[in-house]
Specification:
Radius of gyration: 26 Å
Low-confidence stretches: none
Number of helices: 18
CATH superfamily of the largest domain: NAD(P)-binding Rossmann-like Domain
Number of domains: 4
Structural class: alpha/beta
Shape: flat
CATH topology of the largest domain: Rossmann fold
Number of strands: 22
Strand order of the largest sheet: 8-7-6-9-10-11-12
Strand content: 15-25%
Helix content: 25-40%
Mean pLDDT: 91
CATH architecture of the largest domain: 3-Layer(aba) Sandwich
Length: about 525
């Protein structure tokens, strides 16, 4: 059997070598196609390989009557209509690991350039100025590097920094003290890291929790003369706050490859001699571009020959009759995963998903992937999807178990998502109510009835008169309106909970005030 492959964006010959060496593959390379021409041709092909230039729209996908797989030679898939591809059972693959080495190397290049003022000194020479005194740098040996975000790239940076004989302290939501010890780094919270570091490098996704993570308050906690590198995502640093911190002398310098708005050419940061910057070059190496093409090419070959892929992006297809029955639960189960992720303290070690009632008779694996996706997404960001969630959990050392029972437990179908960490076990249960949609019906051992949407506030407290009133009064002073409230207790005067639906997110300062109230044990904001 012959498979027809269309490559519509420039890829190197080395990158498509796996396609060249596979038997039965007819490769057509045409990087000049207009959208209209692509639409006319796409029906002839089994696979389409692109980078960022080709826009794989719903119209293109619907005309791809023989299309089985779309490969994106890179990480982002914004130029591919994933929904349309999924609806037609077309798998989409990308290359999430291909830029790891390049990004780590660029980070270290920026760090060393920052420490030794290399760009500034070169610029002076270009202007015929020989100035050694102004550009005296600092050694990185025996300095402490704080790594915020300790995934693939963060770990690669740490390995290189240790080669420079730096001390490394790291934070990541999935890093434990035991894992850190095995990797040869010190473990700490974000605050521990930024307080201890002489140099700080950022490697987190951009989430609501990490947007402006490095802000005015964070700068105040840092050492005087700290130096900062960001080759991860624009928006993690509050750029105006960074400008002020550099002008005040708190921050000695910053090396930036990513920015809140790109192209980044007008910001006042670029007027400061202590700032060096590059135009988002972290993954811009010949090798990285080849590696992502190779990874995607191997996936295309593997899928067409065996049906197996390494880096799927969209939801794999299930029989239509099964999909019709489980699809209404997709959003609910993802929300349950997200909810319990915010609820649990510590790094997840085990996830148990239990289906009761009618769901127990169906293929619930897509639902379980969505539950894991919800749990991981709040920490790892948009890179987590329905298909790679289980793979990412495995890589993080998280065990995922699926259990079923036909006992209805009073509901037509019930889903329980339980998370175990080293210190506790937390669980949440949800169901669909006819005409009312999804509901959270149990948190730990407390019965509730809560719509899993918007801004929620979960409070554990002692069952005493006045506790609810004190919470309401404090939220009022914070300008937060309560839309709905559920309460539950184990026994009169014992442990109790409040579950509040509120109109906006409770900031960290408000959470601390809540925890300080009489009879309040804990308060957790949960944004769904």
């Amino acid at each position: 059997m012959t498979f027809n492959i269309l490559i519509s964006d420039p890829l190197s010959e080395d990158g498509i070598f796996p396609l060249r060496q596979a038997e039965g593959f007819n490769i057509v390379i045409d990087t000049t196609l207009t959208p209209e021409q692509l639409g006319e041709k796409i029906g002839e092909f089994d696979a389409l390989l692109v980078r960022s230039q080709t826009q794989v729209t719903r119209e293109i996908i619907e005309k791809g009557t023989n299309l089985k797989i779309i490969g994106r030679a890179g990480v982002g898939v914004d130029n591919i209509d994933l929904t349309a591809a999924t609806e037609r059972g077309i798998i989409v693959v990308n290359a999430p690991d291909g830029n790891t080495n390049s990004a780590a190397e660029h980070t270290m290049a920026m760090l060393m350039s920052l420490a030794r003022n290399i760009p500034q000194a070169f610029h002076a020479l270009k202007n015929k100025i020989w100035d050694r005194k102004t550009f005296i740098g600092v050694e990185v040996k025996n300095k402490t590097l704080g790594v915020v975000g300790f995934g693939r790239i963060g770990q690669e940076v740490a390995a290189r920094a240790k080669g420079q004989r730096m001390n490394v302290i790291a934070y990541d939501p999935f890093l434990t003290a035991e894992k850190a010890e095995k990797l040869g780094v010190q473990f700490g919270s974000v605050e521990d890291v930024i307080k201890a570091a002489d140099f700080i490098t950022l490697h987190t996704p951009l989430l609501k929790e990490t947007r402006h993570l490095i802000n005015k308050e964070a700068f105040e906690k840092m050492k005087d003369g700290v130096q900062i590198v960001n080759c991860a995502r624009g928006g993690i640093i509050d750029e105006d706050a960074l400008y002020d911190a550099i002008v005040s002398g708190k921050v000695a310098g910053a090396a930036l490859d990513v920015f809140e708005e790109e192209p980044f050419i007008e910001h006042k940061l670029l007027t400061l001699p202590q700032v060096i910057a590059t135009p988002h070059l972290g993954a811009s190496t010949v090798e990285a571009q080849e590696i992502v093409a190779i990874d995607v090419s191997y996936d295309v070959v593997s899928f067409l020959q065996t049906g197996v892929v390494k880096n799927p992006v969209n939801l794999s297809s299930v029989p239509k009759d099964v999909l019709a029955k489980i699809e209404p639960y997709f959003n609910l189960v993802e929300q349950l995963g997200s909810f319990v992720s915010d609820l649990a303290n510590g790094v997840p070690e085990e996830i148990n998903i239990t289906y009761s009632g009618e769901l127990a008779n169906l293929d619930t694996r897509p639902l379980s992937r969505n539950a894991v996706k919800g749990l991981l997404k709040s920490k790892l960001g948009e890179s987590v999807n329905d298909v790679n969630a289980k793979f990412l959990a495995d890589r993080l050392g998280i065990t995922v178990n699926e259990n079923k029972t036909t006992k209805s437990k009073g509901f037509t179908s019930l889903i329980v998502v339980e998370v175990k960490t080293a210190t506790e076990t937390r669980k949440v249960a949800g169901t669909l109510l006819n005409g009312l949609g999804g509901r959270i019906v149990r948190v730990d051992d407390f019965i509730v009835d809560v719509v899993p949407a918007g801004y929620l506030l979960f409070i554990r407290h002692k069952d005493q008169p006045g506790a609810i009133g004190r919470v309401g009064t404090l939220l009022a002073t914070e300008g937060i309106n309560i839309a709905a409230m559920q309460v539950g207790r184990s026994e009169a005067g014992g442990d109790a909970i409040m579950m509040l639906s509120i109109d906006k997110h409770v900031e960290d300062s408000g959470v601390e005030l809540l925890k300080g109230l009489e009879d309040i044990y804990d308060a957790t904001p949960i944004d769904l």
